[in-house]
Prior knowledge:
This protein is α+β, with helices and mostly antiparallel strands. It has helices at residues 10-21, 38-48, 61-66, 78-87, 110-117, and strands spanning 2-5, 27-30, 96-98, 104-106.
Amino acid sequence: MEIWINPACSKCRSAxxxxxxxxxxxxxxxxxxxxxxxxxIRAVLDRLGLEPWxxxxxxxxxxxxxxxxxxxxxxxxxERWITALAGHPKLIQRPIITAEDGTAVVARTEEAVRxxxxx
Length: 119
């Protein structure tokens, strides 16, 4: 199990605390420092069953600067979104937990963290 976190994020800290409280074995990836490649983002999206715009923080300054709210959300624009996430990792929703069963979850709630633990 791996969790992508920004240590400054309260949701990330809460997720890590819950994982620790449950005695989970996991690896921490500080994705702002260890930026995921486009291939890694594609793999996580596949595990999540989501599209890149589904995990994009559109209220971030970088998103506004890029004009992401105006970008098409379709198959033809998917790679453009992935490239933006790889180039601006702050835009990636957090935390993301990759579960042992090959799935992943955006773990912004206690229920989502527990869901990942049960997989």
